[in-house]
Amino acid sequence: MEQKRLIEEAEKYLMNTYRRYPVVLRKGSGVKVFGIDGKEYLDFVGGIAVNILGHCPRKVVIAVQKQVQRLIHVSNLYHIEPQIKLAKLLVENSFADRVFFCNSGAEANEGAIKLARKFAKEFLSPDRYEIITCHGSFHGRTYGALTATAQEKFHNGFGPLLPGFKYVPFNDIESLRKAIDKNTCAVMIEPIQGEGGVRIPDEEYLKEVRRLCDDNGVLLILDEVQTGMGRTGRLFCYEHYGIRPDIMTLAKGLGSGIPIGAILATESVSKAFTPGSHASTFGGNPVACAAAIATMETLLEDDFILDNVRRMGSYFLERLHGLKKDFPDIILSVRGKGLLVGMELLRDCTDIVQECIKRGLLINCTAGNVLRFTPPLTVEKKHIDMCIDILEEVIAELK
Q1: Averaged over 311-320, what is the pLDDT?
Q2: Cα dihedral sign, 302-306-307-313
């Protein structure tokens, strides 16, 4: 009865922007969450690649509790100790020299767009303002990030969008080569398109993108909001490809569920931001930074986690390929890197998600016909086996 009442109140008071499933989640631990009605769920959504250490990881919980008792918020007019410590951790373990903190992936991408344009105007040419992104991309819902997102379904009803963006096919280096001109200031790209259907580029694609940017004096922005923080088996996805971006954006898993985003950049690019040129009231909030420090330290200190991502990612793909063999008339392809995994179907997958929920498995449908799996990086074989068993049962009923 309590769940029914809460759902009715949600439908009455909340704006209708989500197609929510009829579940109210109350608590979570590790790979599992529990509904307000007591039902247990195996969570392979993980807040959409957010809960990388599982639900309520002890180290993060303790760090947040201690910080809340010490200091919740002060303005960025002052130095903030956890913010400084987190920035140092990110710089020392990435390509970057400088960090700007914000609150979300969309906000990080907005800031990256501003930084790229300001750098180009100040240090390259006033005519350089255009940013090239890829069809199927997803960079956020705010206006700059929305315009950068090259998917018409997200644009509908919100025009006119911002000028200064150009779109090319993903994983098509020749199209990108032709698109770069004297007005181009940056190429903005996801190493793997998560929301676009877990689309993985050819092995040499990002190297060629980097080379094109270098040859034309264009900045490379990597949107690692979904692929960063160990999701693909390395701390950052760009490490797989032997390249270094000029600007990188992070969010999602950075705070293990506490909202935080970050823009990372090289020294030469970051100098375009000067006092007053960009800001965020809550960016680098002490509590959010405390959560992110605990998350970063866990990833850096525990070699098991990234190794587990690689091993469990391979095992998960193996099991999904087994399903594909059993159901070739339903499953078109299986792909992934680490624990960012997609299974493309020959049909809409909405009802499969709903049936899995009924059986205690939370999964996600993206791009209409792709089941996306983003479980915690600590997932075990037994959890993957449980997921596969439920999927097999649900898909078998479709035949």
Answers
A1: 98
A2: positive
Confidence of residue 1 (pLDDT cuts 50, 70, 90): confident
Q: What integer is the mean pLDDT of 312-328?
A: 97
On whether the CB atoms of residues 27 and 33 are closer than 8 A, the answer is yes
Q: Active-site residue 138, yes or no?
A: yes
What's the confidence (pLDDT) of residue 17? 95
Q: Could you give the dihedral angle defined by the CA atoms of residues 218, 137, 102 and 122, in that order, rounded to the nearest 10 degrees?
A: 20
DSSP 33-50: EEETTS-EEEESSHHHHT
pLDDT in tens, 148-170: 999 999 999 999 999 999 999 99
Q: Which listed residue (95, 100, 138, 373) is catalytic?
A: 138
Give residue 130's identity as a one-letter amino acid code: E
Q: Which CATH class is domain 2-56+303-396?
A: alpha beta
* Cα 342 from Cα 365, distance rounded (Å): 9
DSSP 232: T
CATH node for 58-301: 3.40.640.10
Residues 332, 50, 168, CA angle at the centre, nearest 5°? 55
| pLDDT reading at 399 higher than 70 | no
Q: What are the tens digits of pLDDT across the range 68-111?
A: 999 999 999 999 999 999 999 999 999 999 999 999 999 999 99
**Catalytic residue selected from 165, 223, 337, 373:** 223
Contacts for 333 with CB less than 8 Å, ≥ 6 apart: 324, 343, 344
Q: 58-301: same fold as 2-56+303-396?
A: no
Q: Give the residue extent of every domain in the chain.
A: 2-56+303-396, 58-301
pLDDT at 386: 98
**Catalytic-labelled residue, pool 252, 316, 337, 373:** 252
198 sits in which H/E element: none
Cα atoms in the 13 Å half-sphere on the side-chain side of 238: 24
